[in-house]
Design brief:
337 residues; Rossmann fold
Length: 337
């Protein structure tokens, strides 16, 4: 669907483009009746004002957008550094948009991009983003778009990911090598493809080592830290896990807090692995065994693809896929070495 323009509104209402423009800007020169007609049609056709239209006809905005859930997570902080290392070399500005894991906020941000504010988009979707991929599919047709880390599988677009299934398999196997037999996987989302891939690797490792998959094996947590603590403490008391894999940085921290509250010793009572790029992981007590993701490299690779598409309209951006391996860094929260 093509973008709705002032000219299209003018033709539909049989008014001049000048009248449409003045009505949209609430000019006193236009009658209230005409303003309401214009606004009603603009809303019906999902018209988005383009304040950059005249300049963009001649040149680009020299700005790209990075849409991420948060910056507190060290993965995204490192990814931004990788992105900016490329953007600065190209003379581009980087706008950071935070969704705070909100599907509705992500929708609003994507709609804003229809105005021509940015030349391209790098995005890691929210934990709430579902297959009903709102404006993502349409946006990918209009401007260059690259997924990194968290992707929406139903949208045809370039993607930079890591080997989540293999990483989870290796993490689970490491716990098993350390003597764990009742392992739990803490998942952040039922929708995210990376959460599902990590769960898949976890299940494959259990099967390979002939360990049962039970209803308690995968524990789904929310974005609410208080609710997550309650869920974790209840699960630790009821199911007596001897190993846990936290699939996000926040969940790894939550495990330490829950174990402290229940006086559980790590790794004596329970061994812990986190998917985390925390530079402080080695300073935790005990130091945290982590699946360390190549955040900087993923951000750099995503930006590199985006700028190739900005340089050449014939570059097949949507066909590009790249998987960058992660690594397991063994520390003192697990027993196998």
């Amino acid at each position: 669907m093509e973008n709705v323009t002032i000219r299209m509104l003018a033709e539909r209402l049989q008014l001049s483009t000048a009248t449409i423009s003045k009505a949209l800007s609430n000019s006193h020169e236009i009658s209230e009746e005409t303003k309401q007609r214009v606004l009603a049609l603009a809303a019906e056709l999902n018209y988005v004002p383009n304040p950059y239209a005249s300049s963009l006809r001649k040149k680009s905005s020299h700005t790209i957008a990075v849409v991420i859930p948060e910056v507190a997570d060290s993965f995204f902080a490192e990814a931004i550094n990788g992105i900016e290392s490329v953007a600065q070399d190209k003379g581009y500005h980087v706008l950071i948009y935070l969704t705070h894991e909100s599907f509705m906020k992500e929708q609003a941000i994507l709609k804003d991009f229809q105005s021509g504010r940015v030349d391209g988009v790098l995005i890691s979707v929210t934990t709430e983003t579902t297959a009903a991929a709102h404006g993502l599919a349409q946006l990918a047709k209009e401007i260059p778009l690259v997924f990194f880390d968290r992707v929406c599988e139903e949208v045809t677009a370039a993607r930079i990911t890591t080997d989540d299934t293999i990483a989870a398999y290796n993490a689970t196997s490491h716990l098993i090598a350390g003597g764990c037999r009742h392992i739990g996987l803490l998942s952040a989302s039922r929708q995210l493809s990376i959460s599902n891939r990590r769960a898949e690797g976890f299940q494959q490792a259990l099967a390979a080592h002939q360990l049962p998959l039970t209803a308690a094996s995968v524990l789904h947590c929310s974005n609410d830290p208080v609710a997550t603590q309650q869920v974790l403490q209840t699960a630790l008391q009821q199911h007596h896990y001897d190993g846990l894999i936290a699939t996000t940085e926040k969940l790894a921290t939550a495990v330490y807090q829950a174990c402290e509250a229940l006086s559980l010793n790590i790794p004596g009572d329970i061994q812990v692995i986190g998917f985390s790029n925390l530079s402080t992981a080695r300073f935790l007590h005990p130091s945290l065994t982590t699946v360390s993701q190549p955040a900087f490299d993923m951000g750099k690779a995503a930006a590199t693809l985006l700028f190739r598409a900005l340089k050449s309209s014939s570059f097949p951006l949507n066909e590009q896929q790249q998987v960058i391996p992660s690594s397991l860094i063994v520390r003192n929260s697990t027993k196998a070495h």
